[in-house]
Design a protein that fits this description.
By secondary structure, this protein is of the alpha/beta class. Helices cover about 40% and strands about 15% of the residues. It is built from 13 helices and 14 strands. The strands form five sheets. It has a four-stranded parallel beta sheet with strand order 7-6-8-9, sandwiched between helices. The protein starts with 13 loop residues before the first helix and ends in an 18-residue tail after the last strand. The model is unreliable at about 1-30 (pLDDT under 50). InterPro entries: BCAA_transport, Leu-bd, Leu_Ile_Val-bd, Peripla_BP_I. Belongs to the leucine-binding protein family. It comes from Nonomuraea marmarensis. This is Amino acid ABC transporter substrate-binding protein. Pfam families: Peripla_BP_6.
Length: about 425
């Protein structure tokens, strides 16, 4: 894998973005699609999606596109939804908040799509979901678990993962608690990207581990456009924490590992958000040998016996000659959620779809999903670890794919 490309974010504060959303979306209120008419049965159901296919989030955004497309192809091969073929109208938001607002506004008001699916990241889904809410359209997002997503009183928003960001750390903390006290980490460092998803995971972990007596020796945020991690790595190497827990998106996770390797500092435990879930892209970036023992929390497992999981994995491998990334599975699950609600409602009616989702559980390849009134999911994540070049689930114990846990992490190769 080539070196990570520089990240060039074009980010506004969420408050400023919401003002932009309100300005653009207000004029569109009330223009959502109406119930399916009898004469529309022969027409395809058009689902609008804006994804970051270029820019900061191009890698996970492209995986989400693959997940949506595999779902579409599988559904259409079985006759479609409500007897109609499904068409995806996917546009590129270039990882930009202003663009994603304009994209969803156009999809709703000009393209008049029948349904919506979400984009990638809390940063983009925060303004995108506001556009959908203004237009009273159901918005099922595959990625976007920041707490602020669910504090706005939205009725049409649904997060199609098992849990939100602050709860992702729980399964790792529970594993630490399960260790004999003498084997628990004594010190920890918490570098994190200034990202609305990554930061809450690491903040929650730090608070919980401090309550267990794990001393914090480093806790700092770095800008999202950081590409040089030598300074962070040097500080970590000098303080020698037992645990490094990084709030990483993707390139920053690869970058920190590379810098730590250059300095020959390998912590006993390494936890990263998101980055290790990017399958072969992660292992190519850090080197397969250096994935050994890396922990992360995950919404999905390739070996799960959940609905359509085996078919999804097979279709992904056939199409892309690689193991699926978590972001592709999350997108597939989001589409499963929308499909289930539409089929149960029996009609494309946004309020009926919304009401059914608020009252029911959907079986997906991530497992069963259900939601609070805010759209926040009610479940919990899995604890995954890279072992011998592949990913194993190591917690919770009842869902583990192996009883082996690599602890401590071996040194860099």
């Amino acid at each position: 894998m080539t070196a990570p490309s520089p990240r060039r974010p074009a980010r506004l504060s969420l408050i400023v973005t919401l003002a932009v959303v309100a300005a653009l979306a207000l004029s569109a209120c009330g223009q959502r699609p109406s119930e399916t008419q009898a004469g529309e049965v022969s027409k395809p159901i058009v689902i609008g999606v804006s994804l970051p296919l270029t820019g900061d989030f191009a890698q996970p955004g492209s995986e989400a596109k693959r997940g949506y497309e595999i779902w579409r192809d599988m559904v259409n091969a079985k006759g479609g939804v409500l007897g109609r073929q499904v068409e995806l109208k996917i546009v590129d938001d270039a990882s930009n908040q202003d663009t994603v607002v304009a994209d969803y506004t156009k999809l709703i008001t000009q393209d008049k799509v029948d349904l919506l699916l979400g984009t990638f990241s809390s940063l983009l889904n925060y303004p995108a979901s506001a556009v959908a809410e203004k237009n009273r359209m159901v918005f099922v997002e595959p990625a976007g678990g920041a707490p602020d997503m669910f504090s706005r009183g939205f009725k049409y928003l649904f997060f199609a993962q098992p849990a939100t960001a602050p709860r992702q750390a729980d399964v790792f903390v529970n594993w630490v608690k399960s260790l004999p006290e003498s084997e628990r980490p004594k010190t920890a460092a918490y570098p994190s990207q200034d990202d609305p998803f990554a930061q809450p995971v690491i903040k929650s972990m730090q608070e919980q581990l401090e309550a267990l007596g794990v001393k914090t020796v480093y806790s700092e945020l770095y800008p999202a456009d950081t590409t040089n991690f030598q300074s962070v790595a040097s500080t970590l190497a000098s303080r020698k924490p037992d645990l490094v827990a990084q709030g990483a998106v993707f390139e920053d996770g690869v970058g920190l590992v590379r810098s730590l390797k250059q300095l020959d500092f390998s912590p006993k435990l390494l936890f990263q958000t998101s980055a290790p879930s990017n399958s072969s892209q992660y292992s190519d970036g850090v080197g397969m040998a250096n994935t050994e023992g890396v922990f992360y929390t995950v919404s999905w497992n390739e070996k799960a016996t959940t609905p359509l999981n085996a078919e999804f994995v097979a279709a992904y491998r056939k199409a892309h000659d690689a193991a699926p990334a978590e972001d592709a599975a999350d997108a597939f699950a989001a589409a499963q959620v929308l499909q289930a609600a539409v089929e149960k409602a029996g009609v494309i009616d946004q309020d009926k779809i919304r009401d059914w989702l608020h009252a029911n559980t959907v079986q997906t390849l991530l497992g069963p999903l259900s939601w609070e009134a805010t759209g926040e999911p009610k479940g919990s994540f899995l604890l995954a670890q890279w072992q011998a070049g592949k990913v194993e689930v190591v917690g919770p114990p009842e869902l583990a794919t192996t009883k082996t846990v690599v602890n401590p992490k071996p040194g860099w190769k």
